[in-house]
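Please check this record.
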Amino acid sequence: MANQLVTLSIPEDIYVMLKRRAEQTQRSVEAELLEVVAKELPTATTTIEGSAAPVELKAELDAMVQLNDKALWKAARSHLSAKDATKLEALHRKRHDKSLTHAEVQTKDELLRQYNYYMRVRARAAVLLKQRGYDVSVLVS
């Protein structure tokens, strides 16, 4: 599987934590970030275009080809609510500073599952829109 280059802007406090962790493990910041991302991805039972996803989601993503352009644009812009995104970020920060309670772990896992769902739907919608000739660069900002 080929590697993909991704440019990611992250808050300085997260970068400092990654850099500190990288120094402790004598690895690069990139290697540490890759490990964090890999640990947070859900386990899979099948593969969709080279990335892990549950079987139910594969069927849903495959069915998106039937959506009209308006529905695809809506899907491409879907995301976690601001409240949920804030909660997920707070739990991630807390997890790095101290341990989470069992309830917080469950909340984090559910919010992360939802986040991953939206990211996969958005990515699939963007691919389909691009295949239909649309400029999807507006979705990057």
Remarks:
- Confidence is low (pLDDT under 50) at residues 43-52.
- The chain has six helices and two strands.
- The helical segments are 12-25, 29-40, 55-63, 69-76, 82-97, 102-131.
- The longest strand covers residues 46-48.
